[in-house]
Design goal:
Number of strands: 7
Number of domains: 2
Largest sheet: 7 strands, antiparallel
Shape: globular
Order of helices and strands: EHHHEEEEEE
Number of helices: 3
Length: about 170
């Protein structure tokens, strides 16, 4: 009798957005992550739960127009960056004294975006309400139609705005 193990496969697909995302969303998110990184570094915090407990309410008041889950994902991102920085610092692979965040990237959870692969659109929660964008895609994107959507990142590049989506599927 052979038993087949189930295994979760995760793949990331990149979709180009047909339209512009307000520049202020990237700037605001970057400011929040930098503030959280400074805080984690000064306090030595590596726990997402602790960081969220100590900074979430303050940041919600400061950025009241921003949907709350942006603060949540910024806390996740700041903890991840800080943990990586500490690890690299111990190995002597970092020359700076504190972690930095310079990219134009916004981490999204399932409350901040809704992906529609039938209509090839995405709905994003923004400070100005939900905005809908058409997704530009290739043939390889078709294979993800029956996969589960996980998290995503909005990425600003010189040639446009992209949505990098993590998909998962159980395979035997």
């Amino acid at each position: 009798m052979s038993s087949k193990r189930l295994e979760t496969v995760k793949l990331t697909a990149r979709f180009k957005l047909n339209g512009e995302v307000d520049e202020s969303l990237f700037e605001m998110y970057k400011r929040i992550v930098i503030e959280l990184l400074d805080y984690t570094h000064s306090k030595g915090i590596t726990s997402f739960k602790r960081l969220k407990a100590e900074k979430y309410h303050e940041l919600r008041q400061k950025y009241s127009k921003l949907p709350s889950h942006y603060i949540y994902t910024a806390c996740q991102m700041a903890c991840s960056i800080y943990k990586s920085f500490r690890k690299l610092k111990r190995k002597g692979k970092v020359k700076t004294n504190k972690p930095r965040f310079r990219k134009d990237v916004v981490m999204l959870d399932d409350h901040l975006f809704k992906l529609n692969l039938e209509g090839w659109t995405v709905s994003l929660a923004t400070p100005n309400g939900r905005l809908k964008f058409k997704l530009l895609h290739g043939e390889y994107h078709e294979k993800f139609k029956d996969w589960k959507v996980r998290q995503a990142w909005l990425v600003k590049r010189t040639d446009g705005i992209y949505l990098n989506v993590v998909f998962s599927k159980m395979l035997r």
